[in-house]
Amino acid sequence: MRARAGRVRDAEADYTHAIEINPSHVEALVNRGVIRAEEGRVAEASADYQAAAAADPHDPDIPFNVAKLLMDSGDLTAALRYAETAAK
């Protein structure tokens, strides 16, 4: 919610707090990863997505987000692989 209102720092802090309470909180991990990816913080976004995938390997949003992160980073081959996974 806060991210939509332009309060990205507050939103990231909220997601971090949720993750501190529950390290397997998939929605918080993915959303914090999105914020970090949009800011170009690739390693941090990737770590969030990996943690989310470990918590819920069947969530289709995670491979999609990883594919977008890889595409934005220029690794088109890996991005395609993740996009194909997300499409299944």
Task: Give an account of the 3D structure.
The chain is mostly helical and 88 residues long. It has a single domain, classed as Alpha Horseshoe (Serine Threonine Protein Phosphatase 5, Tetratricopeptide repeat). Helix content is 74%, strand content 0%. It is built from five helices and no strands. Helix 4 (61-72) packs antiparallel against helix 5 (76-87). The radius of gyration is 13 Å and the shape is globular. The termini are far apart.
In brief, what are we looking at here?
By secondary structure, the protein is an all-alpha fold. The chain has helices spanning 8-21, 26-38, 42-55, 61-72, 76-87.
Rg from Cα: 13 Å
CATH superfamily: Tetratricopeptide repeat domain
In whole angstroms, the N-to-C terminal distance is 29 Å
Tell me how many strands there are.
Answer: 0
Low-confidence stretches: none
Number of helices: 5
CATH topology: Serine Threonine Protein Phosphatase 5, Tetratricopeptide repeat
Q: Classify the beta-strand content into a percent band.
A: under 5%
**Highest CATH level, the class:** Mainly Alpha
Based on Cα principal axes, name the global outline: globular
Largest pleated sheet: none
How many structural units, i.e. domains? 1
Helix content: over 70%
- Content-based structural category: mainly alpha
Per CATH, the architecture is Alpha Horseshoe
* Arithmetic mean pLDDT: 89
* Topology as a string of helices (H) and strands (E): HHHHH
